[in-house]
Every structure is written in C-alpha cells, then in structure tokens.
C-alpha cells in the first residue's frame, strides 16, 4: 500500500495546502464534483489521497480556463498507478503545447518587427488573422498564410467575441493533447478512440470553416503537404499526418461525407 494511502486531511487543512478556500471545497462537494471520502462524527469533511488527486485535476483544468461543467467530463479515474501516470502525461502535453504557442507568438513578433524595419508591406488582414490564431493557441495558424482573403474573412467571423475565442481555445488544446497521446500510444485510427477523436475534430473543422467545402479541402491540402509545417510543431505534424489523416478519412467514408474534387489545372 502507498505510504500516503491512509493519510486523511480535513477540509481546512486541505484548503490551506492547495491554496483554495474552504468554501470552494464545500461548493465542489455540493455539486458532486469532489465528494470527500469520509465525514467525521461531527460532520466535517475528510479527504483521502484519491480525493486529493481528483482535486489536482480540477485545479489544473481550471487554470486552463475550463468551466466546472467541462471539467466534470474531463476527469480521469486514478485507481491505478497506470491511470495516474496517464493523467500527468496528458497534463504535461497540454503545458508543453502552451509553451510552444508562447514561443511561436514571440517568433511572430520578431518577424513582424523585422518586416517593419526593412520597410516591407504586410497585408494587415492576414497579419491580424495569423496573430489571432496564434493568440488563441492554434498551432495550425500557419495555414492562414495559404488562405484567400475571402477564406480568411470567413475564418475571422467565427471569433466575434472573447467567449467564442476562449471556448475554441480550450476545445482545440484538449484535442491537440488527445491526438498526440493517441498517436504516441499507437492507437488504431480506425478504432473506437480514433473515430471518436475524428468526430470531435470534424465538428471543430465545421465550426471554423462554416462548412465551406472549398475551405475544408484547402485545409486538408495544406496539412497534407509536410513542407508547409513549421519546425516547432513536429509532434503535432507527425500525429496529424500519420494518425489524424487516416482517422478522418475513415470517419468521412463511414458517414458518407465527400469533399469536393480538386479542379483540373
């Protein structure tokens, strides 16, 4: 048995150790998000190691901006060491992804500054769109460089307010982490997990393309060309080209969804 397995903490002690209020823990209990394993004879909440690990997941996801409702659906079981390892691996992937996006933003600012220094003209609409996509943590923002002005306007219209941007950011970050993890675990793209991911990904594509078949096809073509990918998203590129592409092809075929054929050149 783990040496901490039998260690129990009262609500006050736990609150102090993790930096939340007692009222917060009471609220999590009231909404069945974090129900303590025990109650004392006097009715005080008593938390076990398992409860503490669940709270860690809640605090982590909350720090990324997830609502409590969304967090409830994303909590993993941690009954075994393997499950606990999986939780921390996914959290690490999400944090690593964020670091990468921050660095990408810094790189973009450097490029813009250099362009201004040499007096080069910059298409303002394209620049703003790339910056917005980078700001919301989208590693696929490089695709914007290959879109037409009309397609860019279509894309931009999806993000009319901060709530939409925030929700898109949270959803996409979770999908990026899930995609990379399934790829590393060598899951079958045609299997249950692969097809569930493909369904969620397709819904995201439909959201920011508004179902425009030409824009969807353009995105697929850009993503399929490995020369288009920046060097700082290597893991995502490999997962996208080697796993997601196959999963989406199967999903589209199974659901009778056909992309438009390329026009003859």
TrEMBL record:
It comes from the Bacteria. Transmembrane segments: none annotated. CDD domains: HTH_TipAL-Mta (cd01106). Pfam families: MerR_1, TipAS. One of its GO terms (molecular function) is DNA binding. Residues 8-78 form the HTH merR-type domain. InterPro entries: DNA-bd_dom_put_sf, MerR-type_HTH_dom, MerR_fam, TipAS_dom. Coiled coil: none annotated. Gene3D superfamilies: 1.10.1660.10. SMART domains: HTH_MERR. Keywords: DNA-binding. This is MerR family transcriptional regulator.
């Amino acid at each position: 048995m783990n040496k901490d397995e039998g260690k129990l903490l009262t609500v006050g002690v736990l609150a102090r150790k993790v930096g939340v209020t007692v009222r917060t823990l009471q609220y999590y209990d009231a909404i069945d998000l974090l129900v303590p394993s025990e109650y004392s004879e006097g009715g005080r909440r008593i938390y076990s190691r398992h409860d503490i690990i669940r709270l860690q997941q809640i605090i982590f996801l909350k720090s990324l901006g997830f609502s409590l409702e969304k967090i409830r659906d994303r909590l993993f079981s941690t009954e075994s060491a393997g499950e606990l390892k999986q939780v921390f691996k996914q959290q690490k992937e999400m944090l690593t992804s964020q670091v990468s996006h921050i660095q990408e933003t810094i790189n973009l600012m450097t490029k813009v500054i250099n362009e201004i220094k040499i007096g080069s003209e910059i298409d303002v609409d394209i620049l703003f769109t790339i910056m917005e996509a980078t700001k919301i943590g989208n590693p696929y923002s490089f695709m914007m460089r290959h879109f037409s002005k009309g397609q860019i306007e279509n894309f931009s219209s999806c993000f009319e307010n901060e709530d939409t941007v925030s929700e898109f950011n949270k959803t996409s970050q979770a999908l990026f982490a899930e995609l990379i993890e399934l790829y590393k675990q060598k899951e079958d793209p045609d299997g249950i997990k692969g097809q569930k991911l493909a369904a969620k990904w397709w819904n995201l594509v439909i959201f920011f393309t508004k179902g425009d078949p030409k824009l969807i096809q353009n995105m697929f073509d850009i993503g399929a060309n490995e020369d288009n990918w920046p060097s700082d998203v290597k893991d995502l590129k490999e997962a996208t080209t080697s796993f997601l592409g196959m999963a989406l092809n199967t999903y589209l075929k199974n659901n009778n969804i056909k992309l438009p054929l390329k026009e003859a050149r």
